[in-house]
Backbone:
């Protein structure tokens, strides 16, 4: 295992952990409380400090490793799933920001909360699929 792959795997692990932590926060945000704006602000700070650097590290190390591999069907699907996970996570961050701005509008907040949950599920599925295909490709 080379250093670039090691950094990539660490970044993906941190990113996966941040998604799990955001899911826990999302469950807590699903219940109305007077601290919704503070929780949403802490989620955004969490994303800025941990998730975004991990996503960027995984993205750039993944792109750097693509120059040295032979392309096959598994790799194409893995890259597509990983790119989808990056896009969906970015979209979820945007929706969370909109949710924070609309904290006083309960109907709008609940709609954004549903969207954020759905996007989060898609991101989790894409990231898990990319990780599974990457692990399968390493074994074969």
Residues:
């Amino acid at each position: 295992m080379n250093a670039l792959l090691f950094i990539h795997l660490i970044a993906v692990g941190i990113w996966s952990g941040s998604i799990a932590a955001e899911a826990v926060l999302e469950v807590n945000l699903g219940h109305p409380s007077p601290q919704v704006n503070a929780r949403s602000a802490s989620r955004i700070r969490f994303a800025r400090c941990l998730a975004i650097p991990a996503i960027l590290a995984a993205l750039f190390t993944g792109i750097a490793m693509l120059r040295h591999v032979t392309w096959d069907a598994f790799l194409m699907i893995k890259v597509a799933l990983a790119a989808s996970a990056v896009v969906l996570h970015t979209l979820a961050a945007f929706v969370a920001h909109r949710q924070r701005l609309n904290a006083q509008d309960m109907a709008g907040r609940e709609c954004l909360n549903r969207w954020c949950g759905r996007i989060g599920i898609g991101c989790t599925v894409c990231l898990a699929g990319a990780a599974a295909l990457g692990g399968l490709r390493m074994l074969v």
Q: What stands out?
A: The CA atoms of residues 11 and 56 lie 8 Å apart. The two ends are 14 Å apart (CA to CA). The mean pLDDT is 81.
